[in-house]
Each structure stands twice: as structure tokens, then as C-alpha cells.
Design brief:
By secondary structure, the protein is α/β, with parallel strands linked by helices. It has 2 domains: 155 residues, Rossmann fold, CATH 3.40.50; 175 residues, no CATH class. The protein is built from 16 helices and 10 strands. The radius of gyration is 24 Å and the shape is elongated.
């Protein structure tokens, strides 16, 4: 089943809410946020997350060590201390198919029977896993059919809109977001011949480099970095976005497409309270073509809902006659 990151999050959240103890395997190319999504789901649910990298373990590290019991005249398996004993959470076997077949064989019992050696997975813990696909040219082993048949399988694919929503919520670099809205095909461009290439993970790193005034090529490669550098020169030509968000300016809407992306994403990044939302939306409704109002709304309103701000914004927008047409088109997106 193919999903975008934005679709995967509610799917996994539903599994957690239902406490559905079906082992879940998340497939996808490297760098698109599989591990981050699992961590976000666990955090939002208020449960623990234990990330276990099987490729870094030996079979005895998971199964435990046999210790002689003289009274029983037998050996007992002492389980490893890092496995959960109580509570609720997600036991996450990340990069599972990077583990050699012998290690995957030990994991199979943990996934199927929820136990291995003398260890039993507590009732409140879910067992999930993730891995790259062979077509991603990752250093992975084939997953044995008996192990694969123990999972439900989800495949997550790169998606520019999902990444923008994620990045806006976490305050990632505004120029990076605007650039990727303008050039969404550069979100994920794997290059097995080079160590640095564009992916959601490497763009997040590029944003940190850009904040420090450093070249982003070490994160995303020379080609993407050159395009980004050309794009950032547009920021010198942008109107004062802080003034627009404060309601103090109403300059003409730009005509050049890349500048329009920069302005619209910049306003979405600044709309952190009711009044800046109304000011930015009022400016776009009055001066921008409909598709740019749509970009602003689609990026911002899910974020406001996540922050618990959609209700106050809805009521303020509904009171103003200038937003009547907007309300008719976006009522479903805005509904508290």
C-alpha cells in the first residue's frame, strides 16, 4: 500500500489508538522521514519509542545469553536489558533488512510470537519495523518470505506537499521551503554516484547550513545547491513580508513565478497567530490570483488545526465581508 508521509501519519496513529498488535513494516527510500514519522506518532500518543537497529546486533544480543541453572539442570535465557519490560510503546526495528539473515531469523520469533528466548513483549507494546527497498540501492538483504508474511506492509513515498507541512510545523528554513514549492521535483533526486544528493532529510540539513550562511552543497549536492543559490537572490526583491503580516503594507503582488512562491510561503511561515493570518490572507485575496491564495491556504490551515488555532481563525474570517468568497471555497478546510 503506497502512502505519502502525510497519509502514513494518521494510518499509524490509528493503529496506536486501536492498540492493534499487528506487526507493521514500513518500506521506503532513504532520507524521506520513515523514522521521524514513527517518532512523531509515538510522541503524539504519549507512548515510548525504543529504536533497535538489528544490523548492529548479534543474534545473542537479542535472544539473550544462556545461563546454567544447577537446580533445574538446564540453561535459562537471560534477555537483554534494553528490551521493554513494562508500560506501552513502539518497539521499532529500524533498518531491519540491513541485518543479515541469521539476525532476521531471530527477529522473526519476536515479530510473530512477541517473544524470543526467555523474553516476552509486554502487552502494551507494538512491534513495527522499517527498511529501504532493493531498488533504492541500499545495502539490504532479502527479507525471508516467512518473515515478510508476518507483517502488514506500507510503502511511503516522497511528497513535496507533505514535506512542506512538516517543515512549516517545525520552523525549517523558509527559503528552502519556498524553493521546494517552486521546484518540487528537487525534493528527492537520488544519485548513487555521489555522497550528497537531495532528499527530505538532506534538505532539512541544508536549511541549517543556510541559516549559518554556509554553502548547502555538502548536504544536497552541487546541482541543487546552484539552483537554490540563484533562487535566494530573489529574496532581495521581495516586499517586506513582516510588514504585510502586520497589516502595514500592501505592495503589488509579484509577477515572476519563483518570487510568488517565495512570498506566499514566507507569509505562511509568518502566520503564527490570528491577526497575521488575517493580514496575510487579506493581502493575498486582494492582490493575488486564486492559485496563490490556494497555496497559502493548503499549507497554512492544516498547520493551524494542528496548533489548535483553526477555531479562532475561522470565526474571525467568517465575520469579515471581504472573505465571503474565500469562505465559500474553503469552508471545509477551515471548519473547526
Amino acid at each position: 500500500m503506497d502512502l505519502t508521509p502525510a497519509q502514513l501519519t494518521p494510518y499509524l496513529t490509528r493503529l496506536v489508538e486501536a492498540r492493534l498488535l499487528l506487526s507493521t513494516m514500513i518500506w521506503g527510500p532513504p532520507g524521506i522521514g520513515k523514522s521521524s514519522i514513527v517518532a512523531q506518532v509515538a510522541e503524539a500518543a504519549g507512548i515510548a519509542l525504543l529504536d533497535v537497529r538489528l544490523s548492529q546486533l548479534a543474534p545473542t544480543d537479542l535472544r539473550g545469553l544462556p545461563v546454567a541453572d544447577p537446580r533445574a539442570r538446564a540453561s535459562r535465557w537471560y534477555p537483554p536489558e534494553f528490551l521493554p519490560k513494562t508500560g506501552a510503546g513502539i518497539l521499532f526495528l529500524d533498518e531491519i533488512n540491513m541485518a543479515p539473515p541469521a539476525m532476521q531469523g531471530v527477529a522473526q520469533q519476536l515479530i510473530l510470537d512477541r517473544r524470543v528466548g526467555g523474553y516476552q513483549v509486554p502487552e502494551g507494546w507494538l512491534v513495527w519495523a522499517a527498511g529501504n527497498r532493493k531498488e533504492d540501492r541500499a545495502s539490504v538483504f532479502d527479507m525471508p518470505s516467512p518473515l515478510a508474511n508476518r507483517f502488514i506492509h506500507l510503502t511511503v513515498l516522497p511528497d513535496a506537499e507533505s514535506f512542506r507541512h512538516y517543515a512549516l510545523a517545525r520552523g525549517l528554513s523558509e527559503p528552502v521551503l519556498a524553493f521546494l514549492a517552486y521546484r518540487p521535483k528537487l525534493l528527492y533526486v537520488p544519485d548513487p554516484q555521489r555522497p550528497a544528493w537531495p532528499s527530505p532529510r538532506s534538505w532539512a540539513m541544508a536549511g541549517e547550513l543556510h541559516r549559518l550562511g554556509l554553502d548547502i552543497a555538502p548536504a544536497v549536492g552541487e546541482g541543487a545547491a546552484a539552483e537554490f543559490a540563484a533562487f535566494t537572490t530573489l529574496y532581495r526583491k521581495l516586499p517586506d513580508l513582516d510588514a504585510i503580516a502586520a497589516g502595514a503594507a500592501a505592495p503589488p503582488f509579484p509577477t515572476e513565478p519563483s518570487t510568488r512562491y517565495a512570498l506566499t510561503l514566507g507569509l505562511a511561515a509568518r502566520a503564527v497567530a490570528v491577526r497575521p493570518v488575517l493580514n496575510a490572507l487579506g493581502y493575498l485575496v486582494a492582490h493575488a490570483p486564486a492559485e496563490w491564495v490556494n497555496l497559502f491556504a493548503v499549507d497554512l490551515f492544516p498547520l493551524l488545526r494542528q496548533r489548535g488555532q483553526i477555531g479562532p481563525v475561522f470565526h474571525e474570517i467568517a465575520k469579515e465581508p471581504r472573505f465571503k468568497a474565500f469562505m465559500a471555497n474553503y469552508r471545509e478546510l477551515l471548519a473547526p
